[in-house]
Write a structure and sequence with these properties.
Number of strands: 10
Order of helices and strands: HHHHHHHHHEEEEEEEEHHEEHHHHHHHHH
Strand content: 5-15%
Mean pLDDT: 90
Largest sheet: 4 strands, mixed
Low-confidence stretches: 1-33
Distance between the termini: 50 Å
C-alpha cells in the first residue's frame, strides 16, 4: 500500500494537533498579475492563497450603496409579493412584475451607462438573498440577466449594447436564453437548430425549436444558439454553433403554452419555435462558430449566485421553523429541547454558512480581474448549494410534521421550488464531471511538464519529488502555510486548517496516482470522478468557512464565536468524508464498490426492471 494510502487510514484514528500564536491584520485584495485558479491548484496539492485568504472585502462606499437597495427590495418581497397566489395561479401578476421593474431588478448587473444598476457580482449576490424569497420571481430575473442577456454584456459590440441593454435594464424588454432542444439537454453540442446565410449575405435564416425556455413566452429578446456552416483554416466547411441576438419582432417566432411544472410555477417556461426567422448578420453575438464556448462561459459565470440565493432562502426557513420548534410542545416539552430536532437546525445552519461563504468568496474572485478563471469554483457553489437546499427544506418540513405537508404553509412550496436547482444551469451530474475533468486536465498538463523536467535532470523538480516521497513514507506533518506564526487562519480554527492542509496534500498525491493509472481513459471513470468532485467541493467549502470565520474574529463581528463553531463543525465533517473518499480512490481499495454498483445497474437495465423474485415466491 502507498504511503498516501497508509496515511489516509491512520488519519481516521489519530491526527496531530498544533498550537501557535497568530497575529495578522485585516487586508484587502490587491490588483496585480493574474493568480492561478484556486480550485485547479488543489489538484496539485497546493493552496493558492491569493483571493481566498484573507476573505474578500468590499469598500464602505459599495456597502452603503447596496444597503440603499436592500431595504426597499426586502419590504416589497415581504409585504407585497403573494407567493402562494403566484404558485396557485401559475403566473406572476402584472402589477407585481411592474413593481419588480420599477425597483431596477431587471438591470442589476447591466452597466450604469446603459441604464442598469451596475452591481458587482458581490452586490448582485446580496440582493439575490432577498429575491430568493419567491422562487418564481427569482427564476424569472435569473433567466433574464444571469443568462438571457449576459452574452450581450460579455461579448456584444458597442452597437449591440447600446441598442438592447437600456430596454432590458428597465424591464421594458425581457430576455430569454435558448439553448436546450428536444434531442439535446446536457449535450449542447448536438443541437439541431440551424441558421443559414441568405444569398445576399445580409441575414441568417433561423429554423428550429427550443424547449424548457424560461421567459420563453414573455421575452422580446432571445439569445439563440444554432448551427452554422463555418469555413475552417484548411478550407473545409464544418458545422459550428453560433450565438445570435433574436428579436421577437423579426417574425417567424412562436411559443407553446406555459408548462405545468412541479415548482417555480409562476415562472414562464415553454417551447419556442423559429420558422424562417430572418436575423441580420450584425446580430451575430461574438464570433461566428464561437457559440458553444460562449454558452459555456455564460452558464459558468452565473452559477456562483445560487449559493447566495439559496442561503437567503434557508436563513428565512430557519427563522420560520425555529419559531415553530420553540413554541410547539410534545410530551410536555418544546420541540426545540429534543436532540433530533436540534440536529436538524445545526445541519441547516452549517449548510447555510458554508454555501454563503463559498458564494461570496467566489463573487469576490469574479470581481477582481487578477484572479484567474473561476468556472470550477462557480460550479462547486451550484452543486453544493442546490443539494443542500433540497436537504435543508426536507429537514425543515420534517420538523413541522403534518403542518409542513399542507398547502396552507410555505414549506411544501419551497420543497417543490428547490427541486429544480439540481437540474437547471447544468445538472449536478454533468457539473461534477466538469469539476473533476477540468482539474484533472490542469494537473495532467503540469505533471507532464514536470516529468519532462525530471528527464532533463532539473535539480529543483527532482528535490521536490524526492521530498514528497519522503514525506509520504515518513508520515511527516503537512504544512501548506495556513497556520503557524505566518499563517492566515485564526488560532481558534487551527485544527480545522490542519485538516484542510492534509486533505489538500493527499488529494494532490492521489490525483497524480489516478492520472498514472488511468491516463486519458479516466474520462470514462464517472464514479471515480464523482468522488474527485465531492472531495474538491468539500475542500473549497472548508477553505471558504475558515477564511470567512478568521476575518469575522479579527474585525470583531457579532457572534463570531458561533461562526467558529459552525466552521469547525463543517470542517471536521468534511475532513472525514474526504478521508474515506480518498481511501476509495486507492488502487484495489476494499472500500470501493464501483464494480458491484456497475454490475447491479447492468443487470437491471438489461431487463429494464427490478429482477429479484418476490419474497413470497416459492419454487414449484
Amino acid at each position: 500500500m502507498s504511503g498516501c494510502g497508509l496515511f489516509l487510514r491512520r488519519a481516521v484514528a489519530a491526527q496531530a494537533s498544533r498550537a501557535a500564536a497568530l497575529t495578522a491584520s485585516r487586508r484587502r485584495l490587491r490588483t496585480s498579475s493574474r493568480s492561478p485558479a484556486f480550485a485547479k491548484e488543489l489538484f496539485l496539492g497546493r493552496i493558492e492563497k491569493k483571493g481566498v485568504f484573507p476573505f474578500p472585502e468590499v469598500s464602505q462606499d459599495e456597502l452603503n450603496e447596496i444597503n440603499q437597495f436592500v431595504g426597499p427590495v426586502e419590504k416589497f418581497f415581504t409585504e407585497e409579493v403573494d407567493s402562494q397566489k403566484i404558485d396557485q395561479e401559475g403566473k406572476i401578476p402584472d402589477d407585481t412584475l411592474e413593481k419588480v421593474k420599477s425597483l431596477g431588478l431587471f438591470g442589476m448587473q447591466i452597466p450604469e451607462e446603459y441604464g442598469g444598476l451596475g452591481l458587482s457580482n458581490t452586490m448582485y449576490a446580496r440582493l439575490g438573498e432577498i429575491i430568493s424569497m419567491d422562487g418564481s420571481i427569482s427564476t424569472t430575473l435569473a433567466a433574464h440577466q444571469a443568462i438571457g442577456l449576459k452574452g450581450i454584456i460579455m461579448v456584444g459590440t458597442e452597437e449591440q449594447k447600446a441598442k438592447y441593454l437600456p430596454k432590458l435594464a428597465s424591464g421594458k424588454h425581457i430576455a430569454a436564453f435558448c439553448l436546450t432542444e428536444p434531442g439535446s439537454g446536457s449535450d449542447a453540442a448536438s443541437i439541431q437548430t440551424r441558421a443559414t446565410l441568405s444569398d445576399d449575405g445580409k441575414h441568417y435564416i433561423l429554423n428550429g425549436s427550443k424547449v424548457w425556455i424560461t421567459n420563453g413566452g414573455l421575452a422580446n429578446v432571445f439569445t439563440v444558439f444554432a448551427k452554422t456552416e463555418v469555413v475552417d483554416s484548411d478550407g473545409s466547411v464544418k458545422d459550428k454553433i453560433t450565438a445570435f441576438i433574436v428579436e421577437r419582432d423579426f417574425g417567424g417566432i412562436t411559443n407553446g403554452k406555459p408548462e405545468d411544472k412541479l415548482g417555480i410555477r409562476g415562472s414562464n417556461t415553454c417551447e419556442v419555435h423559429f420558422e424562417n426567422t430572418r436575423v441580420p448578420v450584425e446580430n451575430v453575438l461574438g464570433e461566428v462558430g464561437g457559440g458553444f464556448k460562449l454558452a459555456s462561459y455564460i452558464l459558468n459565470s452565473g452559477r456562483f449566485s445560487m449559493g447566495a440565493f439559496v442561503a437567503g432562502m434557508i436563513k428565512k426557513l430557519i427563522e420560520l421553523t425555529a419559531e415553530y420548534a420553540c413554541t410547539r410542545k410534545q410530551f410536555n416539552r418544546k420541540l426545540s429541547e429534543f436532540g433530533l430536532i436540534q440536529e436538524k437546525f445545526a445541519l441547516m445552519a452549517r449548510k447555510a454558512y458554508a454555501m454563503e461563504s463559498m458564494s461570496y468568496l467566489t463573487a469576490g474572485m469574479l470581481d477582481h480581474p487578477e484572479i484567474s478563471d473561476c468556472s470550477v469554483e462557480a460550479a462547486m457553489v451550484k452543486v453544493f448549494s442546490s443539494e443542500s437546499a433540497w436537504q435543508c427544506v426536507s429537514e425543515a418540513l420534517q420538523i413541522l410534521g403534518g403542518a409542513g405537508y399542507m398547502k396552507d404553509y410555505p414549506y411544501e412550496r419551497m420543497l417543490r421550488d428547490s427541486r429544480i436547482l439540481l437540474i437547471f444551469e447544468g445538472t449536478n451530474e454533468i457539473l461534477r464531471l466538469f469539476i473533476a475533468l477540468t482539474g484533472l486536465q490542469h494537473a495532467g498538463r503540469i505533471l507532464t511538464a514536470r516529468g519532462k523536467e525530471l528527464k532533463r535532470g532539473n535539480v529543483t523538480v527532482l528535490m521536490e519529488t524526492v521530498g514528497q516521497r519522503l514525506r509520504d513514507s515518513l508520515g511527516q506533518t503537512v504544512d501548506l502555510g495556513l497556520t503557524g506564526n505566518l499563517g492566515l487562519v485564526h488560532p481558534s480554527l487551527e485544527d480545522s486548517a490542519t485538516k484542510l492542509e492534509q486533505n489538500v496534500y493527499f488529494f494532490g498525491r492521489t490525483v497524480q496516482d489516478l492520472l498514472q493509472r488511468f491516463g486519458k481513459t479516466i474520462v470514462e471513470e464517472q464514479l471515480l470522478m464523482k468522488r474527485v468532485a465531492n472531495i474538491l467541493i468539500n475542500m473549497y467549502g472548508m477553505a471558504a468557512v475558515l477564511s470567512r470565520a478568521s476575518r469575522s474574529i479579527r474585525i470583531g463581528l457579532r457572534n463570531h464565536d458561533h461562526e467558529i463553531l459552525l466552521a469547525n463543525t463543517f470542517c471536521v465533517e468534511a475532513y472525514f468524508q474526504n478521508v474515506f473518499s480518498l481511501a476509495q480512490l486507492q488502487k484495489r481499495a476494499p472500500e470501493n464498490l464501483d464494480e458491484h454498483i456497475k454490475k447491479i445497474a447492468q443487470q437491471i437495465l438489461e431487463k429494464r426492471a427490478y429482477i429479484c423474485a418476490h419474497p413470497l415466491d416459492r419454487m414449484s
